[in-house]
Amino acid sequence: MLSLRENISQTAVPSLKAHPKRSSLHHSATAPPPHPEPTAIAKLILKTDNSETITRNLHTLTNWTPHLVHTVLKRLWNHGPKALQFFNILDTHPFYAHSATGFDHAIDIAARLRDYKTVWALVARMRSRKLGPSPKTFAIIAERYVSSGKADKAVKVFLSMHEHGCSQNLNSFNAFLDVLCKSKRAEMAYKLFNIFRGRFRADTVSYNIIANGFCLKKQTPRALEVLKEMVERGLVPTLTTYNIMLKGYFRAGQIEEAWGFFLQMKRRKVGIDVVTYTTVVHGLGVVGEVEKARKVFDEMIGAGVLPSVATFNALIQVLCKKDNVENAIIVFEEMLRKGYTPNVTTYNVVIRGLCHAGNMDRAIEYMDKMKDDNCKPIVQTYNVVIRYYCDDGEIEKALAMFERMTGGSCLPNLDTYNILISVMFVRKRSDDLLVAGKLLIEMVDRGFLPRKFTFNQVLNGLLLTGNQGFAKEILSLQSRCGRLPRHFRL
DNA sequence: GCCGGCCCAC
């Protein structure tokens, strides 16, 4: 069978050029429709500059589904402008109409680019097509506002939801509180909670979210107060409530309290589950209590609670960090023998462990092994390996891994660029500075905003090595990004 | 997964 690329670039495009409408109908009527392959589609979009060519190719494919769109968007996630281009082109497809979740993804991408004009245009388009916006849409927008430091804007968004044709209810209220809490705004969330808890009839979930918010800030006493208030108002804590507090104690470094709380939970009627055990295994391991963590792990099976992949991941990570990679790999093998399928996290943990132990080659072996379990290295996987190569001074290998990732349909993210750019200064070679400059341009192109520090580092390097011309180019890029120091003149 | 466990970096 032909690959999609061959299919669309050699067969479909030329014939479409000759008879646009007819040939696409003709195509779907006689030949079986091409099997759209998300990787090939993403690659085509990435390497094609001409937007009309992309349009022709995308419109030629007739069997678009929301799932396929979602997969392609995920692949283009770290190239926001291209992802939006893809979404917009498909939006003009003669037969395909975007789904509500498709719009949500596009809105998420635009918001991440801080392109709020596009965000609200998409919201309006969504509404005019009667696809929403839904509470989920607003949770996405609020989350992006909060994470770019505009918490007040996020609050306004929530309060104005109904003006966009989306009713506020307990679910959207809880989702919104969660957004604030997850970005460490527990105090703000709690204020809003107190204002609106009557109107939305706040439930156990609302309280759990707030308590978790304080736990994330290591304020376990505040979390407890909130829960006490919950009980006084007649709501009953759930197992999730207890698991949140348990995790909170570990996070705050209150290990004694955590352990005591765990023992109490075992005695209570609410019982404990696999999440409880995973929390304890991880929490104990992180503070170096490896033996105790192992004991808890062994104990759970006896208690009739089966470990999940996450439980194994917790133990493996703990062994990597506080014991020895070899012991971690023994557990990894044991997990396989028991019939569990490792996930990306399992691999990432093992790979990090091997890198940390200086065993880069074996780390790469595990990267190759991932496909046996139907998973692929993700950007975090590559970042780990690239980072350790950089730390070892193996810059060529780091760059080779960068090539491998871009060739293998995995787009670099902000971390990848930061790691690579900063390592381009250690060898003091002028060639490396050119690479740094190139990477800087590429990352901006893909919608990432470099720090001021990064711009200055690259600029200084280029100026010192006599690359005035290139430096000027970077400088104008920096001004377009709004990252120039105050009072700076071009 | 409407809230809770496992990847996180300098």
Summarize this, please?
With 490 residues, the protein is mostly helical. Among the domains are: 1-98, no CATH class; 169-270, Tetratricopeptide repeat domain (Serine Threonine Protein Phosphatase 5, Tetratricopeptide repeat), CATH 1.25.40.10; 416-490, no CATH class. It has 28 helices and no strands.
How are the SSEs ordered, and which strands pair?
Elements: H1 4-18, H2 20-30, H3 38-47, H4 51-60, H5 66-75, H6 80-91, H7 100-112, H8 116-128, H9 135-147, H10 151-159, H11 170-182, H12 186-200, H13 204-216, H14 220-232, H15 239-251, H16 255-267, H17 274-286, H18 290-302, H19 309-322, H20 325-337, H21 344-356, H22 360-369, H23 379-391, H24 395-407, H25 414-423, H26 430-445, H27 452-464, H28 468-480
The chain binds one DNA strand of 10 nucleotides through residues 135, 139, 170-172, 174-175, 177-178, 181, 204-209, 211-212, 238-247, 273-283, 308-317, 343-349, 351-352, 378, 380-381, 383-384, 387, 415, 418-419, 422.
Characterization of the model:
- Keywords: Repeat.
- Residues 1-38 are annotated as: Disordered.
- Belongs to the PPR family. P subfamily.
- This protein is mainly α.
- Among the domains are: 1-98, no CATH class; 169-270, Serine Threonine Protein Phosphatase 5, Tetratricopeptide repeat, CATH 1.25.40; 416-490, no CATH class.
- It has 28 helices and no strands.
- Helix 1 crosses helix 2 (20-30), helix 16 (255-267) runs antiparallel to helix 17 (274-286) and helix 27 runs antiparallel to helix 28.
- The N and C termini lie far apart (55 Å).
- The model is unreliable at 1-29 (pLDDT under 50).
- The chain binds one DNA strand of 10 nucleotides through helix 11, helix 13, helix 15, helix 17 and helix 19.
